[in-house]
Design brief:
The strands form eight sheets. The protein has an eight-stranded mixed sheet, with helices on both faces. A seven-stranded mixed sheet has the order 5-4-17-16-18-19-20, with helices on both faces. The longest helix is centred in the first third of the chain and has 17 residues. The chain has 657 residues and is an alpha/beta fold. The chain has two domains: 486 residues, Rossmann fold (3-Layer(aba) Sandwich), CATH 3.40.50; 123 residues, 2-Layer Sandwich (GMP Synthetase, Chain A, domain 3), CATH 3.30.300.30. Bound molecules: 5'-O-[(S)-ethoxy(hydroxy)phosphoryl]adenosine. 5'-O-[(S)-ethoxy(hydroxy)phosphoryl]adenosine binds next to helix 12, strand 20, strand 25 and strand 26.
């Protein structure tokens, strides 16, 4: 089994050099500023004066509380509590208050199915269905504090299920529909969930992909699951287990639309979301109610310059990721916005599907990932040119660094050179956006996430923990923020160790960054063994564990290599057990079964040996060099230098294929 935490880090010097050449600047236009919420430094000044008072102002201005808080912040590193003593209901904030305010007929969600079927859901309808489903959950025995797992395609029922949990004080744990049965059961068991909500299947690339069989396989091994609720979407045949499985539409039919939104404590657990760390075991990141809702409502409003009356917002993430939690469900609905939710892939039936949707619904704010933008670039500017994109006002990116070339393409071909671009840096752990321009106030530079938002304190630190004012360093956060994670489910020690131990008194994000001489931040990617594949976090160790769980594999080493489209690609080096012979494709599929298709290595090299130091540590940096076709420098520390020549020869053969 490959070694963990060898301590070697990605050294992004080449990226630093490439970015240093980027001098273009884009101030907000006068036309944009004329109608923008923030055009000066007012929010920054307020926050700099007193950040707690600043956040308290956001909490009282943007969120409705059933009971006011006594204390804004209790901070006992690493444990933060926000708005202590306050009570609220998150679902009330996302639904009831808009209906009570006369906006019941306003469209909350324009849902677009991949085959072209649509649903239009008003705030009143969403409130009714959430209340019904909350009653269903109660009838199934779900109580305040219980955990409910959600494993769904991108259907409105995903948002309904999340909000229904919030309404009754149960915590949801959403697992991305692309994860395998094994990943699902691991997460269910870690959270000890009582109920699983899934679907028969969903649409992807023009066909139905079944989900229920994976849910069934997972549930064979999850003693805490008492009920499975199944949404009918794919129409594919499924087996229903008597007494355990129920159709969503049948349960809803008889349920009352009356379900009072009970006040919850500000620190009531709202959800768990599992994310990869540097070990094989994903971490259940804990988010609570009052602080999280304040953070996502505030950022959704100011980062996207939201005008809730007129804007149509579209975030292309899946609800299975934090971006979907914060900027499809909680942020936009709390702000009473109208949004688009799309079920499928961007190239079905044609490569212009995204642009067709923008034109169809008059989308004004579009939020997507750099990987997607690079894919759109490959498909060509003729695709967006087929559609009228003049409704767009603001563009956003998230999930990985955006290269200046992709930024410029986005700016020209999607934004028509008129839309500000907000490159938003944040993490599952931060809950909401932390570093980003404010579109009406910030002069942007292509490839830079610019500055910490008002209320957020970030600093770069060198190896010794000294502050870096210009140049490269580790990204840390120096003050607690309302949306911050409250811990790792069931593992307080890992929480402290992972985030708070490397630099005393600071949260260490795991990212490297650079500050230029004008104070702009340039994110440079992870400095730990976490890869970023199309904006999705996967740890090298997780993939290694999956590989060595195959009976033919003796040892595996995995690295993330730079990839022009997906940011990074998974490259694996595998040593087989003596006498075993297995095809790389079999191993790729094995990883997909263990974790999910997103973790399938792009390339697997079967090798007789791996480059190791004399003390037996695998030299990952070297493997990355090989994978990226770089010259290998000094190999004197290697136990057997000839293995590198051999690996390079194999890589060259693959490159020629
Ligand atoms: C990376 C996604 C550069 C980063 C919201 C972080 C980014 C990880 C950016 C979190 C960005 C996210 N520029 N890198 N704008 N946004 N990242 O938890 O490495 O899925 O640590 O949250 O994505 O990924 P996660």
């Amino acid at each position: 089994m490959a070694e963990q935490g060898t301590g070697d880090t990605n050294e992004p010097h080449e990226t630093i050099d490439a970015l240093s050449a980027e001098n273009r600047k884009f101030p907000p236009s006068e036309a944009f500023k004329a109608n923008s919420l923030v055009t000066d430094t007012f929010l920054y000044d307020q926050a700099a004066e007193d950040d707690e008072a600043f956040w308290a102002r956001q909490a009282s201005g943007l969120v409705d509380w059933a009971k006011p808080w006594d204390t804004v912040l209790e901070w006992d590193l690493p444990d933060a509590k926000w708005f202590v003593g306050g009570q609220l209901n998150v679902a009330y904030n996302c639904l009831d208050r808009h209906v009570l305010g006369g906006n019941g007929d306003k469209i909350a969600i324009h849902w677009e199915g991949e085959p072209g079927d649509t649903r239009t859901i008003t705030y009143q309808q969403l409130l009714d269905e959430v209340s019904q489903f909350a009653n269903v959950l109660k009838d199934l025995g779900v109580q305040r504090g219980d955990r409910v797992n959600i494993y769904l395609p991108m259907v409105p029922e995903a948002a309904v299920a999340m909000l229904a949990c919030a309404r009754i004080g149960a915590a949801h744990s959403v697992v991305f529909g692309g994860f395998s049965a094994q990943s699902l059961s691991d997460r269910i068991n870690d959270a000890e969930a009582k109920v699983l909500i899934t679907a028969d299947g969903g649409y992807r690339r023009g066909a139905v992909f079944p989900l229920k069989p994976a849910a069934d396989e997972a549930c064979a091994d999850t003693p805490t699951i008492e009920h499975v609720v199944v949404v009918k979407r794919g129409g594919n045949d499924v087996e229903m287990v008597d007494g355990r499985d129920h159709w969503y539409h049948e349960l809803i039919e008889g349920a009352s639309t009356e379900c009072p939104a009970e006040p919850m404590d500000s620190e009531q657990l709202l959800f768990l979301l599992y994310t990869s760390g540097t070990t094989g075991k994903p971490k259940g990141i804990m988010h609570t109610s009052g602080g999280y809702l304040t953070h996502v409502t505030y950022t959704h409003k100011y980062v996207f310059d939201l005008h809730a009356d007129t804007d149509v917002f579209w975030c292309t993430a899946d609800v299975g990721w934090i971006t979907g939690h914060s900027y499809i469900v909680y942020g936009p609905l709390s702000n009473g916005a109208t949004q688009v939710m799309y079920e499928g892939v961007p190239n079905h039936p044609g490569n212009d599907r995204m642009w067709e949707i923008i034109e169809k619904y008059g989308v004004t704010i579009f939020y997507t990932a750099p990987t997607a933008i690079r894919t759109f670039m490959k498909w060509g500017a003729t695709e967006p040119a087929k559609h009228d994109l003049s409704s767009l006002r603001v563009l956003g990116t998230v999930g990985e660094p955006i290269n200046p070339e992709a930024w410029m393409w986005y700016h020209e071909h999607i934004g028509g050179e008129r839309c500000p671009i907000v490159d938003t840096w944040w993490q599952t752990e931060t809950g909401g956006i932390m570093i980003s321009p404010l579109p009406g106030a910030t002069t942007t530079k292509p490839g830079s996430a610019t500055f910490p938002l008002p209320g957020v304190s970030a600093e770069l630190i060198d190896d010794e923990g000294h502050r870096v004012d210009v140049g490269g360093g580790y990204l840390t956060l120096t003050r607690p923020w309302p949306g911050m994670l409250r811990g790792i489910w069931g593992d307080p020690e890992r929480f402290r160790e992972t985030y708070w131990s490397r630099f005393e008194g600071r949260y260490f994000a795991g990212d490297g960054a650079k500050l230029d001489d004008e104070g702009y931040l340039w994110l440079l990617g992870r400095v730990d063994d976490v890869m970023n594949i199309s904006g999705h976090r996967i740890s090298t160790t997780e993939v290694e564990s999956a590989l060595v769980s195959h009976p033919a594999v003796a040892e595996a080493a995995v690295v993330g290599a730079t990839d022009a489209t997906t940011g990074q690609a998974i490259i694996a080096y595998v040593i087989l057990r003596g006498g075993e012979d297995v095809d790389a494709e079999v191993l790729r599929n094995h990883v997909a079964e263990e974790i999910g298709a997103i973790a399938k290595p792009k390339q697997i090299y079967i090798t007789p040996d791996l480059p190791k130091t004399r003390s037996g540590k695998i030299m990952r940096r070297l493997l990355r060099d090989v994978a990226e076709g770089r010259n290998i420098g000094d190999t004197t520390t290697l136990a057997d230098a000839s293995i590198v020549d051999e690996l390079q020869a194999r890589a060259a053969v693959v490159a020629d294929d």
